[in-house]
Amino acid sequence: MPYNMDHAHGTVMILSWMVFGSTGVLFARYGRVLQLGNQRQLLGKSIWFQIHRLLLSLSSLLTLVGFYFILVHLRGQWSNLNTSNKALLAHVICGSIIICCIIIQIWLALYRCHPHSRFRFIFNFSHRIFGSVAFCLSFCNFFLIAFYLSIQHIDLVIIVSLWTTWVIIVVILFEIVQYHYRKASALMALNTRVSHMNAEPINHNARPDTEAGTHAAIGNQRLNKIKLFLFLIHTIISVAFCIPFIVIIWHQT
User: Fold this and answer.
1) Average pLDDT over residues 192-221
2) Cα Rg for the chain, rounded, in angstroms?
3) Where are the alpha helices (DSSP H) in the chain?
4) Where do the Cytochrome b561 domain residues begin and end (predicted)?
5) Buried/exposed 109-145: b ≥16 CB within 10 Å, e otherwise
6) Any idea which of 40-44, 110-114, 156-160, 195-199 has the lowest mean pLDDT?
7) pLDDT for the residue 92
8) Euclidean distance between CA atoms 226 and 155, whole angstroms
9) pLDDT tens-digit readout, 25-59
10) What is the rounded CA–CA span in Å between residue 62 and residue 34?
11) Which residue pairs from 232-238 have beta carbons closer than 8 angstroms and sit at least 24 positions apart in sequence?
């Protein structure tokens, strides 16, 4: 049983961060103007928010389950911090910080204030900071465990390196698409303002029509399809790296 719990720990952590965590974080950053067909909402909420919440909830749940598995494997005792293996020691420390961040994130999500509250910026800042710390440390922990495990050590390092490289590439691609979204939004906002000025007396105190810009970005079907395609490709590639990683974990003695 301890043998299975040890490997189950690695399995759920890989699923949690390589698949659900990474995709959920990308949706929070790049999925805010997505449409599915003509729909911008799902069950009364924005599509990006529903998907982000679902994926990160699964990621948090699996992370806590993985923490439980390793506690069972160690019979409720903390890992030996006096170990001579520095990679294992660092893995334990990073994992502990991730667990703390996850617990704080759950607390923040349960007690977040209204979106229009004057204290909302505190939630937004805290949510992003703790989420970013946990996500970045997950990369560190994958590399640390790859260096720690003895069987197929090189294969593990290659898998984690390729997956990390892919995440960097997909972020760059999303940023390029995001740039074109902003450019299209600014152009539409400018055109709308010019139209208003031509149709009505000039009002120098008028504010830019930012909503027009937002709708322009959402209405750009080509960019919307590109983003959906990138999300799909990222999910497929993450699963593709996840499977051999898990198989190698279960071959460890």
Assistant:
1) 46
2) 22
3) 2-14, 22-30, 47-73, 86-110, 120-148, 153-199, 210-219, 221-250
4) 1-183
5) eeebeeeeeeeeeebeeebeebbebbbebbbbbbbbb
6) 195-199
7) 86
8) 32
9) 999 888 887 777 666 777 777 788 888 889 999 99
10) 27
11) 233/170, 234/22, 234/23, 234/26, 234/166, 234/170, 235/19, 235/23, 237/163, 237/166, 238/18, 238/19, 238/22, 238/23, 238/163, 238/166
Token readout for 125 is 């800042």
Max alpha carbon distance in the chain (Å)?
79
pLDDT above 90 covers a percentage of the chain that reads: 34
CA 135 to CA 55: how far, in whole Å? 13
Residue among 246, 60, 234 nearest 163 (CA): 234
CA distance 94 to 141: 7
Looking at every residue in the chain, the average pLDDT score rounds to 80
Q: What is the pTM of this model?
A: 0.78
Amino acid identity at 150? S
Greater pLDDT, 218 or 241:
241
Considering Cα of 188, then 194, then 197, then 202, what sign does the dihedral take? positive
The answer to whether residue 216 scores a pLDDT higher than 60 is no
Query: Who contacts 30 (Cβ-Cβ below 8 Å, separation ≥6)?
Result: 174, 177, 178, 227, 230
Spatial separation of the C-alpha atoms in residues 31 and 224, rounded to whole Å: 9
- Evaluate whether 57 touches 92 at the Cβ level (below 8 Å): no
The answer on pLDDT for 217 being more than 80 is: no
